[in-house]
Fold this sequence. Notes:
Layout: H1 3-12, H2 40-57, E1 60-69, E2 72-80, H3 87-108, E3 120-124, E4 127-131, H4 133-137
Antiparallel strand pairs: 1-2, 3-4
Helix pairs in contact: 1-2, 2-3
Amino acid sequence: MTPRAARRVFRVHPRTYRLAWRGPRTSAMCFGFECGDGWADILARLTFVWRVMWCVARIDVIATQVKEKFGTLRYYHVVDAPRAWPRFLRRWAAIVADGFVRDAEYESTYTCEMCGEPGRELHCGGWWVTLCDVCVERRVIPT
């Protein structure tokens, strides 16, 4: 992802991506978003959900890695709910966060990774990618 698109996602709720400024021993977020710009809107919407969860219930979602794998988005995260909450509520917060991540990952299966237009999963050059017809014709292959 280009730095401009990454900044747009970071600005939504910087708290979620605070591990990006630490080394690789802490998390893989130090490598940035390992996907194309087309998924920046999906990530911005997901990050906005984390911001709402933080503002309303102090549920903290921390991204540990965001990447493309087998043509779809992979979003690895940790959920930190208030310690005063009973265990079942903390578990509930993690289940809710996992559901939002699953929805974002599913949305990436039909969104072009390069431009954000509707796309489809393809086997291209030995890799699974999600691209629109225009990006396939241009032979835009993600690296």
